[in-house]
Amino acid sequence: MSFRRLAGERLAAWLLLVLWPCVRAGVEQPPSGEAPRLHLVTFMNRAHRLFAILQVSAEAHGLHPQVLGSGANCWWPEGLGAKINALRNFVFSRGVDGEDVVLFMDAFDSMVFGGEEDILAGLQEMEKLHKARIFFNAELVCYPPLDGLCEDYPPSPTPLRHLNSGLMIGRAWAWRELLKEPVPEVIEGGDQAWYQRQFRRANGAGLLELDRECRLLCAISDEVEDFAVLAEDGRMVRRDKGYRPPVVHWPGTGHWTRWPSGQLSATSHLIDTFRRIYPDAARRLVDNWNLELQLGAAQDVDLYDGAGIWPVMIAVLCVQCNVFGTGQRECRFFDGYFSERCAAISLLAMTGFVLSSLACFHDIQVRRGKMGPISLNLSRVLPKPSDFSV
């Protein structure tokens, strides 16, 4: 080896030794050996009161959701390509290291039941079990029912068989591999259809997998409400296996409005769970009725803020469902004029109709001179002053 070549190699090694700290500082990488961080993110283009469920439950476990997509022009479901792109922008941001864990949760129908340590340990266990890197919660039904998405779906040891994109978790480097390029803002079937296609194409490739057993991510709905239940310590527990998922989602019927028999107010499985664990927060944030007008950016007019006047809502739904025949989902609880909730309203309406008809008939007869006006002789009813004498 020549002297000149040896000197050049020594100079290069010296420059690398001197400049390497500056290079690493510019990349913002954590010190070697630092544990991966958990980033909890959600998507919400407009504020909604049900976000309080995720916010309160996350804060109770030391987590603070980062909201993506505020003000985005999007809609459910086809317009949710923006939701995918917002997540993509986040995982490629400078504040996220490759080994960090990114957990995405739907903003309005999800709850946190465990802290960062619990979630990270759950992910490590899932990675070892399935040799995959990104995990989705699984649900009973396949949505959207588009060609090529639901046929010959991979089998499952539980009723939870199909991908749902309401809960997703994985390492940042894996997210970057999945989301290499931006997606169209408008996608047929929405963001879940896009994730379904990626899952079906990559099935068995070691990147995407479903949590079909509720070990880490769990989806609960009417059809499988007994699959996982709320334990006395406030954790969701899978009945048969004892798994305690730290993150739970109520898709579809899990968050749809329901009217339990014998109850005058509306609720949902999601709201019931939140109310049992956080009763004070539920009373202040989701149970009250609030009527207000938002007039531009500077004016709010509060019309009512207080306890729910549920008989009014019941009367409205009885009329909508039985008189006008609207097809809204809640009508299954108000089916028939003499159903559990509409019977009293119907009897009251019938009584009013009969009395008003009799009054009209009497008025017509009076005008024709066939009947005298109805009078009430109060002297026969009210007591005389002498009756009160001592």
Automatic annotation (TrEMBL):
Domain PLOD1-3-like GT: 37-249
Matches recorded under InterPro entries: GT_PLOD (IPR057589)
Domain of life: Eukaryota
DNA damage in keyword set: no
Pfam assignment, any one: GT_PLOD
CDD domains named in the record: GT_LH (cd22997)
Residue ranges of the TM segments: 343-361
Keywords per UniProt: Membrane, Signal, Transmembrane, Transmembrane helix
Signal peptide (from-to): 1-25
Protein name: PLOD1-3-like GT domain-containing protein
